Amino acid sequence: MRKRLNNGVNCTPTKGCPVEVTLSIIGGKWKGIILYELLGGTKRFQELRRALPTATQKMLTLQLRELEADNLIHREVHHLVPPKVEYSLTPLGASLESILTQMKAWGERFQAEHHLSDFSNLK
Questions:
Q1: Domains recognised in the chain with CATH numbers
Q2: What's this model's pTM, rounded to 2 decimal places?
């Protein structure tokens, strides 16, 4: 099965469509938001928790570990009491800035055009 996008790029699921590859790396409920938050600079774990109040600590930790494993974020542990952990974008993660800002702009337009104030009816 072959998908043909309007820009002439072929996406073959068996060969790995570049769009699918990208979505497999940054997809997930919280990864895009985490990456977007880190565009503003280094953040501590609790700052990210406050930015994503409905994410559980376990899920946030899992998503951060996956982003770190994919070399999109850097985790810096400062051996203090109490321990201090900071997250920042790697150069690879920072290369997603234009994608993330375009996604934000698209989402804002979609919300405005559909008169959405939240996502409860988009399930």
A1: 24-113 (1.10.10.10)
A2: 0.83
